[in-house]
Amino acid sequence: MRARFLVILLSIALHYVALSQASASAERREHLYKILVIGELGTGKTSIIKRYVHQFFSQHYRATIGVDFALKVLNWDEHTVIRLQLWDIAGQERFGNMTRVYYKEAVGAFIVFDVSRAATFDAVVKWKNDLDTKVQLPDGSSIPCILLANKCDQQKEGIVNSPTKMDEYCKEKGFAGWFETSAKENINIEEAARSLVNKILLNDKLLQSSDSKDSERFALDHKIANGENSRGGNTKSCSC
């Protein structure tokens, strides 16, 4: 009798576990975000992606031709899975006509320069301007873009030696932030990606909030147009 009672209790417990898992699965949200990784040739874009996605670094990458892809899956929290589709766009594309196709539907970007080659920093503003003119968020604003000062394990050239000047530069040029990174030493890659994803999620929430308000406003305008008050009654006066 006791054994039968324990079996019943176990079956009830398993039933509630299954219901709980089903409920958690139903509440789980998934996002797919397209992220651009752009900048001059040889700045380490491919190395950054390989380090971030595969935790791997090699000194012997061949130059990316055209565009390459990688997928990073993040279990952001217990209710959210984020898939980042990372587009590794070749530096030699340099603002060509095809970049408009590559940029389409992107919601975030990294622009990468090499701290040991000042010329790659000089080109950053051109990449940023090209990005801003070819892709925008639904409200017309620029997609969040983070500047990566890569190869920070090497000797630095230019204003990257001054964090204050870099802060001012990023604010002036409309960057969402900047990080010193090193794919070789695995410095700040995860932190930079997390910062960008946070900004993308914030934009998503703001957009959803705006859509919700627009829907409510449309419903209210529709009611008013049809002579309904907020309680569902008729506001039209009777002329009889």
Provide mean pLDDT, rounded: 82
Helix-strand makeup class: alpha/beta
Q: In which range does the helix fraction lie?
A: 40-55%
Largest sheet: 6 strands, mixed
- Tally of separate helices: 7
Distance between the termini: 79 Å
Describe the structure in your own words.
The chain has 240 residues and is an alpha/beta fold. The chain is 44% helix and 20% strand. It contains 7 helices and 6 strands; from the N terminus they run H-E-H-E-E-H-E-H-H-E-H-E-H. It has a 6-stranded mixed sheet with strand order 2-3-1-4-5-6, with helices on both faces. The chain is globular, with a radius of gyration of 25 Å. Residues 235-240 have low confidence and may be disordered. The small GTPases Rab are key regulators in vesicle trafficking.
